[in-house]
Amino acid sequence: MLSIYKVILIGVIYTAASLHAVAEDSKETLLSANKTVNLDAAKVGEAAVVAPAVDLKDIAPAPVVNPEPLAPKVKKDDGKKIQEPPTEATEDKKEKSPAPIALEEKLIILGSAVTPGTATRLAWSPNVGISGLNLPTPVLVINGKHRGQTLCLTAAIHGDELNGIEIVRRVMYDIDPKKLHGKIIGVPIVNLQGFQRASRYLPDRRDLNRFFPGDPEGSSASRIAHSLFTEVIQHCDLLIDLHTGSFRRTNLPQLRANMLDARVIKFSEGFDDIAVVHSEGNPGMLRVASLEAGIVAVTLEVGESLRLQESEVKAGVKSINALLEREDMYSRLFTWGDPEPAYYQSHWVRASHGGILLSRIELGDHVDKGDILGVITDPITNEVAKLRASHDGRIIGMAVNQVVMPGFAAYHIGIRASEETLVSEEKMEEAKANANKSKRSNSIEEIDPE
Ligand SMILES: [Zn+2]
Prior knowledge:
By secondary structure, the protein is of the alpha/beta class. Helix content is 25%, strand content 25%. The chain contains 12 helices and 19 strands. The strands form 3 sheets. Strands 9-10-12-19-17 form a 5-stranded mixed β-barrel. The radius of gyration is 24 Å and the shape is globular. The site of zinc ion has 5 residues, from loops.
């Protein structure tokens, strides 16, 4: 019985994924009662089906390429409701006749209606490839039983950044939709093609995180960005975009946040005792485009690319769980540690020589100006160069041991600052930078791009 349901579920999921229904346009049709949704109607975007309620902890059915579309089960005895798909939620079975839920409380996304108090797996496809070979990208959706904000979690926009994928899984699979206030939408692997090739980039070597909010008539990357932005991101009130250090660097768990925006400052305060590095970001970044669209967005940087790091993953999960508590979305009755995040300005220490870099310090260490951070040895001449701390501060990012060339940005030193200093000093920096644009080349985005 269970497996039959699963087949039906797959059918429903893929039907939903093939839709182009824009929530607002289709809402009226959707919400108009006594309409029985059928596949043909769904195909032309006239309506959405109710997403199957799944326990996200259940093992997901394996992806099926071009599945046979199966008609969703229709409740013939009740023409006044959208048909409900089979549900495995045992709690629902206990309720003999659940009170009808106001349709406007359903989350209409990706052509599906997600009922309050349920979770589901949907699929997003940017439709930029060969349509027969389209690879649906999984989107996890939890519509909380109680009203509240919508938080989005995106990971692996850079396909080689793995820690965030695991963070999204752990956060979302630990949520009981019945206790959630608001909604959580998670896209664990945005750049599925990059992920499969262990590459940061899209197949055309473009960096997806430079193309938001995208353009439906633009390049392939721009179309993908536009599709994700319109179909998923525009549902969010809050966004956390998960990344790791890039190009063989590792990052202490840290937020990259635009501290010139009061909403972002308030949002960043919810992440427990995390490091917050002020950064306005570069045009085309998801968090920048989101903020411009009124979505409060930050980047959460955790660890190193191409690795899964248990302690960094745990730190990321803890920060997001703290945030859910502080935003009144999900309570675990847990006592959090130091509620104050630590704000930083930052400076990079660059390699003075080429050679083999071996570090003497670890990520997160506190250092004093002049301390030896690492040693670069020329493998042929045996010449040794010491890299020293330029400031008193904390190592918030660093290169892993490797061969470096002169000029390589090796250590990112965070210098503690108050929110106010950070912003006022940034404004001064900005004024200077505008006067001398070359100064911009030292921004963290270009050295360790999100
Ligand atoms: Zn990244």
